[in-house]
Amino acid sequence: METDWDAVRSRTLRVRAALTGRSGFRFRRGHSPLAPLTEHELTEAEQQFGVTVPDGYWQFLLHVDSGGIGPVNLRRLSRGPGGWGWENDQETDHAALATPFPDQDSYEDQWEKLEAVKPQVSDETAWAAWNRRSDDLERAQTAGAVHLSDNGCGFYTLLVVSGTERGNVWFDRRATSDVIVPLRNRGGTHATFTDFYLDWLDAAEQALTASWGPLHRYDIRAPIWEGRFDD
Q: What is the residue range of 181's domain?
């Protein structure tokens, strides 16, 4: 079913109005309540990154907003002095966005092999080399993905922009369980950005209808987001 993104914008405005001033969201001074991008801006960003923005995320950026409110505080895509990028994003490797997002199951063996050659003595040179290999492996594991939000405590929501998982949303929970997992729809299929956002919007509207007082972020229990720690 085709998504009516203009209707999504209207629904988002209603939810956002209910949350304004009550839930810690920060809105950009001098901008309208929602600040979508233009087609020219999106094309310019694509050319810089060397990728085609997945359709659902493109439609969100074009019709709804450049970031902000959502299942999590989505980082805004904007153009700064250094070009296009996502706000407060120190994790996304822009140079690797065109690299296909890797098969995550393959990394278990790679990490085991790296652990097997971990230095056993206090050799600073050996440890420095091992740490570099570890850092390279960790970065490679999220190639082809945007760190769409920082969820705190080392957790990130990823949007895949290259490879067979392009358009799908994953959750980086390596801070506690050493894995990056796909977020899933109720039927078990991998959730696209559109699935992810509309699932949250449905839950937000239900919470708003049922609320007797101010609506807070923690009142919104979106099933796809709630499943991020499921095995």
A: 5-102+141-229
